[in-house]
Write a structure and sequence with these properties.
Elements: H1 2-35, E1 51-55, E2 64-67, E3 73-77, E4 83-90, E5 96-98, E6 108-111, E7 116-119, E8 126-132, E9 139-144
Parallel strand pairs: 1-3, 2-9
Antiparallel strand pairs: 3-7, 4-5, 4-6, 4-8, 8-9
This protein binds copper (II) ion.
Residues 58, 83, 132, 134-135, 138 line the site of copper (II) ion (CU).
Length: 145
């Protein structure tokens, strides 16, 4: 009698557990897409020339951006801090690795602080890296499709 009741209680708990796992699994892909490229809101008021990435005092506010082939990328310095952007990236140890991927436009832009520049156009599909020579680990990955 008692063990039967315990058994049905256990069954109920198992059903509830599976239910919440399924629920979590269903909601996860949705949140992943919104926090992915959905977070890269195009800049308002920059002339509508395409996609924009903002910079803080020592970082890009997003680490990856996807842009259409043939377009430029607008990079906006939100703060009064200089940045120097070039082709390349910091590796996992924070060591700068200057390099220009085949098909990448040459990027060499000095930001004085609180200014905006376009880089590109990116005429070749692929994955390209730019980094700030001043701030360690300030990397941006640009995917061109
Ligand atoms: Cu910088």
């Amino acid at each position: 009698m008692n063990s039967k009741r315990l058994g049905s209680l256990t069954l109920l708990l198992v059903i509830l557990a599976i239910g919440s796992i399924l629920f979590a699994a269903c909601t996860r892909p949705g949140t992943a897409t919104t926090s992915g490229n959905g977070g890269n809101t195009p800049a308002a008021g920059t002339g509508g020339s395409g996609t924009a990435v903002h910079m803080g005092s020592s970082n890009f506010l997003v680490s990856t951006i996807s842009i259409p082939k043939g377009s430029k990328l607008t990079i906006i310095d939100d703060v009064a801090v200089p940045h120097i952007l070039q082709n390349g990236m910091y590796d996992a140890n924070g060591t700068p690795k200057p390099s220009k991927e085949p098909g990448a436009p040459t990027v060499s832009v000095n930001y004085a602080g609180s200014d905006t520049h376009d880089i590109g156009p990116f005429t070749t599909a692929g994955t390209f890296h730019i980094y700030c020579t001043i701030h360690v680990n300030m990397n941006l990955t640009i995917t061109v499709k």
